[in-house]
Design goal:
It comes from Streptomyces mashuensis. This is Glycosyl hydrolase. Helix content is about 35%, strand content about 15%. The protein has an eight-stranded parallel β-sheet. It has a three-stranded parallel β-sheet with strand order 12-11-13. A two-stranded antiparallel sheet has the order 4-5. The chain is an alpha/beta fold.
């Protein structure tokens, strides 16, 4: 089991690439290593690293390598995101793909070729580092593909799949054998019209990545103490397995956090422990990477309110209760206080109108019939898995996952 954190610098947020200070970075990494974590996920800003379609800045790559080396000195492995893309409500798209040079991020050949070259440059920069985990294509790049983005780059599911394969192939060619993945926000799992699909997440890349945020309507509907809120990360981890061809395909909980006011500050530590306790019981979980290491300085303007205080540390590097809660769970896990996850013997059958594009996946969203049935079963103390309805009578598949009983939504809801 891997435990890590998404690294948000304590000074300057991700704009720190413009004023790169190795001493500040080392101090931040000392904070992180002191919690007993084993990896960081880091975020080069795409326009800073590739300001022109044919210019990938060597100095920026050198700075990324310096950060990775500093992490390695502290026993921290490094995962790197490429196309940033989108972070904390801000878009970072280079000028050569916007306004006067507006071209589709997913389908325009010159843009796609440049993206692949950029990912390759990142991979080549770190390929010889033993602690380099791999590349994530980008942070929730799927949000560019449709509503609610104000200026979307429209794409079909087939085009999205081709783009993802092209990006992942570039990552693998540059740094063979590493854990190269892609990451979508939860429209991929919850919106039947969204072109990035659950099948893309569960079939492409070295493992399936989920981002679990309870400000998506979960905490608003069920409350900060609700079973659905505390189970949300575990639910997404189990939902993701329904689309995997390999019954043992790993799942990476790459983002989860305690966003105020949806989770009140006084509740954040308890929410953290509950979230981790539930998700650590999911078989084939590769690891958890908490969002995020340090708060956002309130001198920086225009962030959504919930983004400022998500850190394990304040901007002056004081450990917060949420950081203490995470560190305590990590210590207990490594001391053997948590029982290893066992196969989930009971599964809920999921019908989304076909696995490939899953047009009915709205039932999986908070408030949806499947979501509520799964939470109801879990709240009774059962450990439910998820299986596709079309495989609910596939004895070999069920046996491979250790499932002995399949329950229908109607069996739970009475409808």
């Amino acid at each position: 089991m891997r435990f890590g954190v998404n690294y948000t610098p304590s000074r300057g947020w991700f704009h720190h690439w413009l004023d790169f200070d190795p001493d500040e970075i080392r101090a931040d990494l000392d904070d992180i290593a002191g919690l007993g974590l084993d990896h960081v996920r880091v975020f080069p800003l795409w326009p800073v690293f590739q300001p022109n379609r044919t210019l990938i800045r060597p100095r920026a790559l050198d700075q990324l390598r310096l950060l990775a080396d500093a992490a390695a000195e502290r026993g921290l492995d490094v995962a790197v995101d490429g196309l940033q893309g989108h972070l904390s409500s801000f878009d970072f798209v280079p000028s050569w793909a916007t306004t006067w040079h507006r071209r589709n991020l997913f389908t325009h050949e010159a843009v796609v070729e440049a993206q692949a070259a950029y990912l390759a440059a990142l991979g080549e920069t770190l390929a010889d580092l033993p602690g380099f985990l791999g590349l994530t294509v980008g942070n929730e790049v799927n949000q560019f593909s449709g509503p609610p983005h104000p200026d979307p780059d429209r794409v079909t599911p087939a085009e999205a799949g081709r783009w993802l394969r092209r990006m992942l192939d570039a990552c693998e060619a540059a740094a063979p054998g590493r854990l190269h993945v892609h990451a979508s926000y939860d429209a991929a799992w919850y919106d039947g019209t969204h072109p990035f699909t659950p099948a893309h997440s569960a079939l492409l890349g070295a493992m399936t990545v989920v981002h679990s945020w309870v400000f998506n309507g979960t905490a608003q509907r069920y409350g900060p103490r609700g079973a659905a809120t505390e189970l949300h990360a575990a639910y997404l981890a189990e939902l993701a397995k329904a689309w995997a061809e390999d019954p043992a395909r790993p799942v990476w909980l790459q983002e989860t956090g305690a966003p105020a006011p949806h989770v009140p500050p006084g509740r954040a530590a308890a929410f953290t422990r509950a979230t981790l306790t539930h998700v650590l019981d999911c078989p084939d979980l590769w690891g958890v990477t908490w969002w995020c290491s340090h708060d956002v300085d309130r001198s920086l303007a225009d962030f959504p309110e919930l983004e400022y205080d998500l850190g394990l540390f304040t901007t002056d590097r004081r450990l917060k209760p949420v950081g203490e809660a995470l560190a305590r769970v990590v210590r207990e896990w490594r001391a053997g206080s948590f029982a290893p996850a066992r196969p989930r013997r009971v599964a809920l059958a999921l019908d989304v109108g076909g696995a490939e594009e899953a047009p009915g996946r709205r039932v999986c969203a908070p408030g949806g019939a499947f979501f509520e049935a799964w939470v109801a079963v879990a709240a009774e103390g059962v450990r439910p898995a998820v299986v596709p309805a079309e495989r609910a009578v596939d004895a070999a598949y069920l046996a491979a996952r250790g499932i002995e009983e399949v329950v229908r939504v109607a069996d739970v809801t009475g409808r």
